[in-house]
Amino acid sequence: MGGVGGLGRGRRGAYLPLLLLPPLLLLAVAGAAVGKEKEKGAFGKLRFRRESGTFKVVQVADMHYADGRSTACEDVLRSQVAGCTDLNTTAFLYRVFRAEDPDLVVFTGDNIYGADSNDAAKSMDAAIAPAIDMKLPWAAVIGNHDQEGTLSREGVMRHLVGMKNSLSSFNPEGIEIDGYGNYNLEVSGVEGTPMDEKSVLNLYFLDSGDYSTVLSINGYGWIKASQQVWFQQTSSSLQAKYMNENPKQKEPAPGLVFFHIPLPEFSSFTAANFTGVKQEGISSASINSGFFASMVEAGDVRAAFVGHDHINDFCGKLSGIQLCYAGGFGYHAYGKAGWSRRARVVSVQLEKTDNGEWRGVKSIKTWKRLDDKHLSTIDSEVLWNRGSNGMVLRKGSHTATVEYETMGAFGECWMANLL
Ligand SMILES: *[C@@H]1O[C@H](CO)[C@@H](O)[C@H](O)[C@H]1NC(C)=O
Ligand SMILES: *[C@@H]1O[C@H](CO)[C@@H](O)[C@H](O)[C@H]1NC(C)=O
């Protein structure tokens, strides 16, 4: 689908070339998209931008959208209560999308608060509407509150898959898998470069469940063995393709993983080793299903992004993987009065060769946008740098670990001492 799928700057004009095609050819183009990619519509292919070599994701966690203007805000200052509704959540979406111009929006669950919604489908349509209105490709997973209204978990996920510009998928075909909304998306390199047919960035989406279904275990759900098997097989086949097919690459394309409920490993950090804040406990499942180990073993995952705990918004690195919260986005969700609702931005940068051609991913950065007066940007940091992940350089008889230091407002990276 070449140019049609070329997102980025050309995105808004993406329909135009289609309209100019003769009808027969148009049918052929449409036909090509039918089948496995059917639901993905005109936004089937995600791609890095040519001018900047970037791909930017805005993560929206926990909108808790219900009935719109009749649904009040929670945990805002007394002075902010009057006139504060779900529509403030909508307004924040528009603000952050305008400011960041993302290539993909990822909604990481509790998109709606089913229990307070009269019509789950309508609530979901209203919640996602700004992304559709702004013609942004988007993907979603479900949390533990989406299904509490008029739709089941399966129903909510099917609805998300069917919505306009949705890149969400229900589940991989032909296998038995737990949950609803386990899928992956590939992000191709810049068009017209040797990487334009390769997925240089892999995005994985999983359903982390709602509540434990095992009587003897209380609390939240977890990512089950069937999902982990699918994840590992998907990761390994993507890696094999990336490294064995021309132009062959020496290390796997980075992977980013999105789901709702934090893993128990999110408890591994203190303020000494995370960026952001921890203002509440880590509400993971009460048992560890091993998904963190699966990610470490897979070898390509550089960061995992969750929501669920609205007033935690940190990223911390464990065993080479950044574990990141987004912080709560929605106004009809618990929060902390006076502590701004927020979104996480993830910006992935390609490497440029000496002759000016974009290649694979060089770095992954993140920051947060606050819904305050100035839409403040905070906590900018580098999540990953090519070659920095515990890579060991050997020179002569001694061995040294490459150290990177984060500097500057946008976390420009400097190599502190490279032998
Ligand atoms: C909610 O939106 C209203 C209407 O735009 C605005 O006046 C108010 O300041 C917003 N409240 C918050 C907490 O952002
Ligand atoms: C973070 O620092 C604390 C001590 O402040 C330490 O106990 C913990 O192991 C560290 N975690 C990681 C992931 O480095």
UniProtKB/TrEMBL annotation:
Question: Keywords for this entry?
Answer: Glycoprotein, Iron, Metal-binding, Secreted, Signal, Zinc
| Domain Calcineurin-like phosphoesterase, residue spans | 55-311
What's an example of a GO molecular-function annotation for this chain? metal ion binding
Signal sequence interval, chain numbering: 1-32
What are its cofactors? Zn(2+)
Question: Where, subcellularly, is it found?
Answer: Secreted
The family line of this record is: Belongs to the metallophosphoesterase superfamily. Purple acid phosphatase family.
List the GO terms this entry assigns under cellular component, sorted alphabetically: cytoplasm; extracellular region
Which protein is depicted?
A: Calcineurin-like phosphoesterase domain-containing protein
InterPro entries, per database record: Calcineurin-like_PHP, Metallo-depent_PP-like, PAP14/16/28/29
Can you tell which superkingdom this protein's organism belongs to? Eukaryota
Q: How does it assemble?
A: Homodimer.
